[in-house]
């Protein structure tokens, strides 16, 4: 079974997916796959440099993520171009890795902040939205990314997030993560049981 996990930045998607991993799921982290792709020269990196300029490249020819963030998170059109370019590369890799896990009889969880925008929901049997209050999300982002991003970059990332209604209207099921790790674990238990029952 393939489950798509999505939600706004800082809501707790990665924590929830780690709980699914502990319950036997193969977790495909789209952000991690994306970061692997842009860390070194390649097709995706080249296309990004053509769109945003060579100033986003680091000394090794990969993408300087901070420079790229400055170029896109304040400009909706630029962010749209970034997503259009990267989604196709990430989606192809997710589909390939998912097929390997499925052939081995392993349930798959796709951790994808832009699950619907990338069209990955089409390969999912169930879509799960992890939500959280805006203040909690901001605090988590600062704790997680505060050393590598400026306050302005963090705020721009939060501002670029969709409203909760975007997820409640599209996901099969959602959960409001209020920081209760036991409640989140119980939710992971229910999702895992659902997958096993299918």
Provide a compact summary of the structure.
It contains 9 helices and 5 strands, in the order E-H-E-H-H-H-H-E-E-H-H-H-E-H. By secondary structure, the protein is an alpha/beta fold.
Task: Break the fold down into its secondary structure elements and pairings.
Blueprint: E1 2-6, H1 13-22, E2 26-29, H2 30-38, H3 43-52, H4 65-72, H5 76-103, E3 108-111, E4 126-131, H6 134-145, H7 151-159, H8 164-170, E5 173-176, H9 181-197
Helix pairs in contact: 1-9, 2-5, 3-5, 6-7
Cα-based radius of gyration, to the nearest Å? 17 Å
Proportion of residues in helical segments: 55-70%
Shape: globular
Largest sheet: 5 strands, parallel
In total, the number of strands is 5
SS-derived structural category: alpha/beta
Mean pLDDT: 90
Count, helices: 9
β-strand percent reads 5-15%
End-to-end CA span: 8 Å
Any low-confidence stretches, pLDDT <50, length ≥5? none
Q: How would you write the strand order of the largest sheet?
A: 2-3-1-4-5
Instruction: Output the helix-strand order.
Output: EHEHHHHEEHHHEH
